[in-house]
């Protein structure tokens, strides 16, 4: 062992002497020319980026000091979201519910009193409208709470008018009932999905016995759902985030399931022509794609899975743009128009920073990728300050109180003592705002870029011949709208890369550099003679306007 250490020391000494000698013989090593300055066009205030922000209501901001996040807290923090350049907010379920998360509703037309009154909610909508921020609410109709009056009636008697609003079958012959088509929407028997009601019957629940599935094939149920949705549209919400879309029918590929959502969307569109909906189909692209014939926007889970895979192991990172495009190609095969709702983590997944080995540089690249790729990006609250959390020990761990500031933090929610994100593990927002090297600084800068440059907001994506790119850890692509062309480069790896631009410009079918626009992580462009070189430190990104 000692001999090995000695050998390594000798090699190090030898290398050090070599590099010194090289400095003398090479006047301009790569990246040592004149640095080309950055010039970012100033933002005109128009929110072209179409960026949404997901708020876990209980944890975001407490406006009345009882420790629970609420409508008033959100209302007070809308100026912050507006200054970030957010176009819309998604509120996790805000209807009454016995659970902390609210994904089991007891009344679809009331507000959760813990979050505030209807007047408080209306005040939120009014302030949001004044800031040009759309509000969408979580609409959870695959199931209700077992405490919903509909289910309380249904479970109490086989002759209840609400019995057929849910999915009951005789406990001794569930399988036979399913096989003979007597359980609408259910096609396969799975014992875990049935709960014994104690009266000779069991009821179907895809997730939990306290979340009985609604019978969405029952026209009375459909009428009640449509009625509730119209109620909120009348209040002024822009639309809905649709929960558990692929579970409406047990078979996620059932044509009846597609038809159900299509009918719902069309009914709401007839009522409010500009209604917006984004659906959760938690699956790979081929399962997601057919739902675009029913729902205009769907979350792109696959692109996020690929992104974290490549950031955690950059060996094949250069293929990321193609893998992203492959998802869009699958979407294209189902529908000619769709909204690709991109995202990093959400309330059901490990926090992005935790997924990325708690390495801030990786989280910064993830943000820079999300905000420079095509789509309609969704940011989960707290991602912009690098909150942490692992789901395996409880969903609450990825839904912890937002950290507004150190010291007295009057808006911080206290409904739960955080296990992952507190002042000693995550720098709160107010302190990150003063730090140009923070995760927040990257979100702020790249949100502004997306809002400023139409090419980033809605331009086409191209990535040239990836095979010819010599470095597997570098990710390149261009975004173009009209004559505006931006080249985006990221270093997914941890070591500094210095590359000559000419072959990349050629591979991307561009003609030359116009102007470096922005960077994160210390990336820079240098010019030596007529040769442009880009230096990308580990986990850095750069955006360059091209000819
Ligand atoms: Ca409160």
TrEMBL record:
Domain Glycosyl hydrolase family 13 catalytic: 54-416
Family as reported in the entry's similarity comment: Belongs to the glycosyl hydrolase 13 family.
Signal peptide interval: 1-21
Matches recorded under Gene3D superfamilies: Glycosidases (3.20.20.80), Golgi alpha-mannosidase II (2.60.40.1180), Oligo-1,6-glucosidase, Domain 2 (3.90.400.10)
InterPro entries (alphabetical): GH, GH13_cat_dom, Glyco_hydro_b, O16G_dom_2, SusG-like_C
Cited Pfam families: Alpha-amylase, SusG_C
Highest taxon above the source species: Bacteria
Keyword annotations: Glycosidase, Hydrolase, Signal
SMART domains the record matches: Aamy
GO MF term list: alpha-amylase activity
Protein name per Swiss-Prot or TrEMBL: Glycosidase
One of the protein's GO biological processes: oligosaccharide catabolic process
């Amino acid at each position: 062992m000692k001999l090995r250490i000695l050998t390594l020391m000798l090699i190090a000494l030898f290398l050090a002497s070599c590099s010194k000698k090289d400095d003398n013989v090479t006047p301009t090593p790569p990246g040592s020319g004149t640095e080309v300055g950055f010039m970012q066009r100033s933002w005109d205030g128009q929110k072209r980026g179409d960026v949404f922000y997901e708020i876990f209501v209980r944890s975001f901001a407490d406006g009345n000091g009882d420790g629970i996040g609420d409508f008033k807290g959100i209302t007070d923090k809308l100026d912050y979201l507006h200054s970030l350049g957010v176009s819309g907010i998604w509120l996790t379920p805000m209807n009454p519910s016995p659970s902390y998360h609210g994904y089991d509703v007891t009344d679809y037309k009331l507000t959760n009193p813990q979050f505030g009154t209807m007047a408080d909610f209306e005040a939120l909508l009014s302030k949001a409208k004044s800031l040009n921020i759309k509000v969408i609410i979580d609409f959870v109709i695959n199931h209700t709470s077992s405490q919903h009056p509909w289910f309380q009636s249904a479970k109490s008697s086989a002759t209840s008018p609400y019995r057929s609003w849910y999915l009951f079958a005789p406990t001794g012959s569930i399988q036979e009932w399913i096989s003979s088509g007597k359980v609408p929407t259910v096609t396969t028997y799975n014992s875990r999905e049935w709960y014994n009601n104690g009266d000779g019957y069991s009821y179907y629940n895809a997730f939990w016995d306290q979340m009985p599935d609604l019978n969405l094939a029952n026209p009375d149920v459909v009428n009640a759902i449509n009625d509730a949705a119209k109620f909120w549209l009348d209040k002024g919400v822009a639309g809905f985030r649709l929960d558990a879309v692929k579970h409406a029918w047990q078979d996620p590929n059932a044509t009846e399931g597609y038809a159900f959502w299509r009918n719902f969307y069309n009914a709401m569109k007839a009522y409010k022509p500009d209604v917006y909906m984004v659906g959760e189909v938690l699956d790979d692209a081929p399962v997601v794609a057919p739902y675009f014939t029913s729902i205009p926007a769907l979350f792109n889970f696959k692109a996020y899975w690929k992104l974290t895979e490549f950031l955690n192991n950059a060996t094949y990172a250069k293929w990321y743009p193609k893998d992203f495009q492959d998802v869009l190609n699958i979407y294209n095969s189902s529908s000619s128009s769709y909204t690709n709702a991109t995202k990093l983590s959400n309330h059901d997944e490990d926090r992005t920073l935790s997924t990325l080995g708690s390495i801030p540089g990786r989280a910064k690249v993830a943000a820079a990728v999300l905000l420079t790729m095509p789509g309609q990006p969704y940011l989960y609250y707290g991602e912009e300050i690098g909150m942490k959390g692992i789901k395996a020990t409880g969903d609450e761990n990825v839904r912890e109180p937002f950290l507004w500031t150190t010291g007295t933090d009057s808006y911080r929610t206290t409904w739960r003592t955080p296990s992952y994100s507190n002042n000693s593990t995550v720098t709160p927002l107010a302190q990150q705002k003063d730090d140009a090297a923070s995760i927040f600084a990257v979100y702020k800068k790249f949100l502004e870029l997306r809002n400023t440059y139409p090419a980033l907001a809605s331009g086409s994506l191209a990535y040239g011949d990836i095979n010819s790119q010599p470095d597997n850890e570098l990710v390149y692509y261009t975004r173009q709208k009209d004559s505006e062309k931006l080249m985006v480069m990221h270093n997914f790896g941890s070591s500094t890369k210095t590359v000559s631009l000419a072959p990349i410009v050629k591979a991307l079918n561009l003609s030359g550099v116009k102007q470096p626009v922005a960077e994160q992580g210390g990336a820079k462009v240098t010019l030596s003679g007529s040769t442009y070189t880009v230096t990308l430190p580990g986990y850095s990104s750069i955006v360059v306007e091209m000819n």
